[in-house]
Amino acid sequence: MKILTCPAQLQRLEGILRKSLPFALPVFGAVLNINRGNPGRFEVLVDKWPEFGAVLARPSGEVPANDGYWNTQAAFYRDLGAYRALLETPGCLRWDAAFTLIGGLGTPGSWGDPGEGLGSTGNVEDRGELLEAGRNWEDLAGRKGVELDIVEYYSYWHPDPSTMPEPRPAPGVRLGSLSPSHVDLLNDTWPYGGNARSRRYLAEILGRFPQVCLQDGSGQPVAWVLTDHFGTGTHSYTLPEQRRRGHMQVALTVAAQRAQARGFPTFGHTALGNRPMQQLQEMLGHQRLPGVCSYILHNPGLDKDGP
């Protein structure tokens, strides 16, 4: 196991992962952030260098044992055996803490399922490897006495945001910015929020990563899109009384165009039952990746507010 700290190595990794898009998402987004000032204080581990078979992006330093929001990690592998070996290496994962693992291609939170997914090399022949990886992960967690809580999403990415229609805010609405004073609003409207840990997490990503906000004439937010450590569009929301006015279309378009200008990909995860958001993204030219992406919370019983 090796933590990459050399700027030249991190730049090389960025180039390698870029060639594996969209399946290297979201690890690629984490590496982009690391190479551009590392606002999220992340690090990347590989099984070996330079001929790595697996890579993990995770928070650096100490992370609270009870915070599965902040302790979110993402993996991408080119070799299943290397992937297993990396994650079982002492010091790679903290098995006695709450943490969330999201996946790129071929990981337990993989882009794909046995019926329609692609394998770790992007070949259809590798479908069975995805299923094997999931079974192996559940077996490993079981041996360690770790419970899992899994939430599945459809994942969308836009191959070329420059082709998106020009955003036109509705009358009386303008582009603005969210501020720290809006954290409670974000926490109250986030389906996964409503607690002290989620509030702390939202405050952190609001202060460290780009966001898009539409405001009414009085300066109050009506719709917004946040971005996280992996460059993922997250907590996209329109106030109920402001819906059906095209606000989210504008917010998503502006967020995508700004991400492209910074050299970042445009992607995000949408709940399986959120058909309106799925239809909107497809209308804007986003492509849905095969299968589903899973957010796997480990030790959910530890993921709770504390002192």
Overview of the molecule:
By secondary structure, this protein is of the alpha+beta class. It has two domains: 2-153 and 292-299; 161-288, Aminopeptidase (3-Layer(aba) Sandwich), CATH 3.40.630.30. Helix content is 30%, strand content 23%. The protein has helices spanning 7-18, 27-34, 80-88, 127-143, 183-189, 196-208, 247-262, 275-283; strands spanning 2-4, 42-46, 54-59, 72-77, 99-103, 148-158, 174-176, 212-215, 221-227, 233-238, 266-271, 287-288, 293-298. The strands form two sheets. Strands 1, 2, 3, 4, 5, 6, 11, 12 and 13 form a nine-stranded mixed sheet that branches. Strand 2 and strand 3 (54-59) form a beta hairpin. The longest helix is centred in the middle third of the chain and has 17 residues, at 127-143. The model is unreliable at 104-127 (pLDDT under 50). Belongs to the glycine N-acyltransferase family.
Record keyword descriptors for this entry.
307 residues; nine-stranded mixed β-sheet; Acyl_CoA_acyltransferase; Glycine N-acyltransferase-like protein; acyltransferase; Glycine_N-acyltransferase
Give the strand content. Answer: 15-25%
User: What's the total number of strands?
Assistant: 13
The residue fraction in helices comes out at 25-40%
Write the H/E string, N to C.
Answer: EHHEEEHEHEEHHEEEHEHEE
User: What is the overall shape?
Assistant: globular
**Radius of gyration based on Cα positions:** 19 Å
Mean pLDDT score:
89
Most strands sheet = 9 strands, mixed
Number of helices: 8
> How far is the first residue's CA from the last residue's CA?
33 Å
Number of domains: 2
Low-confidence stretches: 104-127
Global structural class:
alpha+beta
